[in-house]
Amino acid sequence: MKCKVWLYSAAALLLLGAAAACGKDDNNGGGGTPQPQQRATLLDLLGEQASAYHNSENVPTEHIYLCAHRAITVASEQLGLPENSIPCIEQAIAQGADMVELDVRVTKDGVPMLMHDSSVSTTTDGSGSISSKTYAQMKAMKMHPRGTSTYPTVDGEPVRVPTLQEALEVCKGRIYVNLDVKDCGTELLLKTILAADAFEDVMIYGYNASQKMEIVAWALNNAHTWVAIHPYVGSPDGCSEYLTQSYYDCAKLFQYSEDTYYNNTTPKFGYKCHAKGVLTYSNSLTHDGEITTWYNQYGKNELEGGPCAVLDRFIASGSDFLQTNKTEYANLYFKEKGLR
Fold it and tell me: For residue 249, is it within any domain?
């Protein structure tokens, strides 16, 4: 589902610049949210979906979105594609994921690239840390899937580690992006997103609360747009810190622990967050095997009604975004339940 993009006048942009120069928000008579040129499409989606629940924990969740963890899908695993690679992202798009989760680290010479581990040896033919390598050295490496020594090729060429900008340009307008920032300064990250013209598709995970506030301010004052921030919380009440004017309504999707919904330690976690006007996001990663088992027993044989504990518990929590390596299988299950 795509939502409208809100456009604002040149006068509003001038007011934003004036507010930034004064160090305060003087728009709309004072105290209001700055009015940038356009509101981020992802935030529109999140805001519209959250509003459908009317700040109530009693409205059933109507749609569950799927995020491919490190861009991995069943198809990319079967094809032997490395995580956090462009071919892996292309497969996530092809397989119907709504979002990809991508990991960001920075080279010795200051280029943000996709890499989960600090060591390059986990997914490339290189060794050492990414922070000790130059961009040129990183681009000379060949990628392989985690736990293997097989180097796939695409159109006869080895798969290379992509820069963040390259990845965002592939995703732009095609799939949303959750950036799990492992190691990257906030300004460098934001300038890279701006260079890719990708603010409308991106949310940012990582950094502490004050850094998230800085991220929002930088985006408003330099890119003239909102940016989605993605906090981690331990309880529904943990959302409250981010639901203040300081964050300009940029926190709409909150991540929480997979164990919380799986073990039901906080019943109806997602529904309790709906009552606060926000959505929730969690993993199924440690229980992805249950999804595969369901598919092998029921899904591939088109047999309805077979249970899948991890997905049933996710549904019961009222949560909205599931991060998984089994996008295609989860998609079938949620469709059967009327949630896709």
Answer: yes
For residue 100, what are the domain limits? 39-336
The string of pLDDT tens digits covering residues 252-306 is 999 999 999 999 999 999 999 999 999 999 999 999 999 999 999 999 998 988 9
Q: Which residues pair with 178 in a beta bridge?
A: 101, 203
Q: Per the structure, how many domains does the chain have? A: 1
- Residue 245, domain CATH: 3.20.20.190
Q: Is the dihedral of CA 252, 63, 88, 197 positive or negative?
A: negative
CB atoms inside a 10 Å sphere around CB 75: 17
Whether residue 27 lies inside any domain: the answer is no
Alpha carbon distances (Å) from 262 to 65, 133, 268, 274, 327: 18, 40, 11, 19, 18
Specify the pTM. Answer: 0.89
278 in a domain, yes or no? Answer: yes
For the segment 153-163, what is each residue's pLDDT rounded down to a tens digit? Answer: 999 999 999 99
Kindly state whether residue 67 falls inside one of the protein's structural domains: yes
Nearest to 105 by CA among 168, 219, 188, 208: 188
CA distance 235 to 143: 38
Q: Which two tokens stand for residue 303?
A: 């047999």
